[in-house]
Amino acid sequence: MRTPILKIVEKKNVAIEISNQSNFPVNENMLGGVVGYAISFLEAHPESDVNILLVNEDEMEDLNSRWLNKSGPTDVISFPMDELAPGYGIPKPEKGILGDIVLCPSVANDQAKSAGHSLSKELQILTIHAMLHLVGYDHAEPVDEKEMFALQSKILCEFRSGSVWD
Asked: Which run of H or of E encompasses 57?
């Protein structure tokens, strides 16, 4: 079993704490880059904080059951903290803690294989998805789902166009 890695990634003034408690090697700098890009894209306060926890399937199953009343492990869960919203057009968006993102790399890896792309790309998709939840987007209703997934695709495309990560 790998020793959990705790890494602080600074992207501009954003503090991104990443703790890898899974058995998957993950590029923490890439995850920090995705979060930093999403914060900039969403015009959230540039000093917002985000925590990322990478867990194994048993831990994710426990969190999914405890917090969402769903069985089995899932790919990502987000926990918004300060209920901050995107800063679109707001001269001074609020500073605070956006929240926590919990990723399960083994579930993401299975999804990546099914989708025919890399684990790195799948983790980018999931991290952007979680970031959108942290700033208030949801996909419970079809119209909201369409808006959220379109924005998710746009952020991913723009991030990957300038990205050095596969």
From this structure: helix 57-68
Residue 18 banded pLDDT, cuts 50, 70, 90:
very high
Identify the structural domains of the chain with CATH numbers, from first to last.
5-161 (3.40.390.30)
| DSSP label at residue 148 | H
Return phi, psi of residue 115, to 5°.
-85, -10
Element (DSSP H or E) covering residue 95: none
Q: Note the pTM of the prediction, 2 decimals.
A: 0.86
Q: Distance between CA 32 and CA 8 in Å, rounded?
A: 9
pLDDT-based confidence at 86, cuts 50/70/90?
Answer: low
* CA 103 vs CA 20, 128, 143: distances in Å: 9, 12, 26
Which residue, 14, 38, 24, is CA-closest to 110? 24
